[in-house]
């Protein structure tokens, strides 16, 4: 089961406010696209969360480790990569 | 892991048995095949369990008959390739082959990152080519059954049985190096210019002044995914021509090194899917040459070795595979 859609981690993920070193390929590509689209006002944050949530629901098994990374409170799971999300 | 080389007569037999096939091979072989439930592209380089090889006498077959519940084959040119996503099944995947350095290849490479819903279902495939020494003299081809084209992409939209899902993954052994951040003013293929520390510089001169290894790609970081942009240097014209597009919103660094034990790195990265149902895979001709994969078995992977790979988008120097689970 995925983390609750209301958790702040989803907004952090889609907006690029927090940078994660993700492992699942389609999630990596989709997150890069949504951060860019939000910045360009092409989509709302809520639409981005809905889209990413649906993608993660489809690939729940494959994104399990990424979900742990995003929704864990441990500080070593955060990594700032300034040359990604530089949109 | 799916796929192996067969003779023309063996493939004809499969086609006559109504098998649903993804084919790759030399034009001299594919052009002998009858119409049927198959798509194909030209390339004479392959990875097999016996190792990497060059052959113009065999056809590589991925038989997906038992994996799919239906399919539709379409050909697209640069004017309608954007319909690829809307033409796909609600739950399935789209397998695409694009002829190298054609308008449809360029259009797909540049525009697919902007398409809505591109990531809803996997788009996986490769860029067709020819024997490297013949490039420029012989045109790469794609096949929708016995109908072939040098200018159109072929796509098999595949429908999955209920309860199944497809995902596409990549393995890229290259990482960003520690050097300059490069960026590009416009989306495109660079036009031999880039921006370094605010200054526009000649890309070919920059590479040479920094003594950069010609085989190293530029690498961008997409939320943890290392995405390569390879280049071919034209020494006579003094140009570095890019083999995948660059985008102004991304920054790039030259890859760290090619001093990599490819087999070891690869085996480590594919470990997570070692028990998965991999129905298709392909690798890049640059990897085949640069890492000396001719004659080498790499983790029992098998598939065409291509002029570019597609995992949603056109990639370079990357291994791409499709899992159905």
Structural features, described:
The complex is a heterodimer of chains A (87) and B (325). Mean pLDDT of chain A is 84; it is low at 74-87. The relative contact order of chain A is 0.23. Chain A is globular, with a radius of gyration of 12 Å. In chain A, helix 1 crosses helix 3 (45-58) and helix 2 (25-39) runs antiparallel to helix 3. Chain A is built from four helices and no strands. Chain A is an all-alpha fold and 87 residues long. Chain B is an alpha+beta fold. Chain B has seven helices and 26 strands. Chain B has a six-stranded mixed β-sheet with strand order 1-6-2-3-10-11. Chain B is globular and about 60 Å long. The model of chain B has no long low-confidence stretch (mean pLDDT 95). Classes of the chains: A mainly alpha (87), B alpha+beta (325). At the A-B interface, helix 2 of A face strand 13 and strand 17 of B.
- Rg over alpha carbons of chain A: 12 Å
| Shape category of chain B | globular
Number of helices of chain B: 7
Give the CA-based shape of chain A.
globular
Radius of gyration of chain B: 19 Å
H and E string of chain A? HHHH
Top keywords for this entry?
heterodimer, A: 87 residues, mainly alpha, 52% helix, globular, disordered C terminus, B: 325 residues, alpha+beta, 6-stranded mixed β-sheet, 15% helix
């Amino acid at each position: 089961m995925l983390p609750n859609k209301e958790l702040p981690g989803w907004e952090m993920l889609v907006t690029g406010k927090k940078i994660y070193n993700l492992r699942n390929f389609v999630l990596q590509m989709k997150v890069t696209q949504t951060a860019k689209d939000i910045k360009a006002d092409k989509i709302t944050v809520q639409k981005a969360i809905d889209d990413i949530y649906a993608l993660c629901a489809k690939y729940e098994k494959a994104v399990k480790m990424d979900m742990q990374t995003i929704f864990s409170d441990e500080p070593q799971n955060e990594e700032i990569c300034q040359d990604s999300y530089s949109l | 892991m799916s796929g192996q080389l067969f003779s023309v007569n063996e493939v004809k037999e499969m086609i006559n048995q109504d098998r649903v096939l993804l084919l790759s091979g030399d034009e001299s072989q594919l052009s002998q095949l009858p119409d049927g439930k198959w798509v194909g592209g030209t390339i004479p380089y392959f990875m097999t369990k016996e190792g990497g090889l060059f052959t113009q006498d065999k056809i590589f077959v991925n038989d997906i008959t038992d994996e799919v519940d239906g399919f539709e084959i379409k050909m697209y040119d640069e004017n309608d390739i954007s319909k690829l996503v809307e033409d796909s099944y609600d739950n399935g995947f789209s397998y695409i082959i694009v002829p190298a350095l054609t308008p449809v290849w360029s259009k797909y490479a540049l525009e697919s990152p902007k398409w809505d819903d591109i990531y809803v279902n996997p788009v996986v495939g490769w860029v067709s080519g020819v024997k490297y020494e013949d490039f420029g003299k012989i045109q790469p081809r794609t096949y929708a059954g016995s109908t072939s084209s040098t200018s159109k992409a072929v796509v098999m939209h595949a429908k999955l049985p209920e309860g199944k899902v497809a995902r596409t993954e990549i393995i890229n052994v290259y990482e960003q190096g520690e050097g300059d951040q490069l960026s590009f003013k416009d989306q495109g293929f660079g036009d031999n210019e880039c921006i370094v520390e605010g200054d526009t510089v000649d890309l070919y001169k920059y590479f040479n002044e920094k003594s950069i290894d010609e085989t190293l790609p530029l690498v961008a970081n997409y939320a943890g995914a290392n995405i390569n942009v390879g280049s071919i240097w034209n020494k006579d014209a003094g140009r570095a021509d890019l083999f995948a597009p660059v985008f102004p919103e991304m920054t790039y660094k030259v890859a760290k090194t090619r001093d990599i034990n490819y087999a070891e790195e690869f085996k480590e990265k594919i470990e997570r899917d070692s028990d998965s149902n991999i129905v298709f895979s392909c690798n890049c001709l640059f990897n085949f040459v640069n890492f000396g994969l001719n004659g080498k078995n790499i983790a029992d992977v098998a598939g065409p070795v291509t002029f570019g790979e597609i995992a949603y988008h056109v990639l370079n120097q990357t291994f791409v595979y499709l899992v159905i689970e």
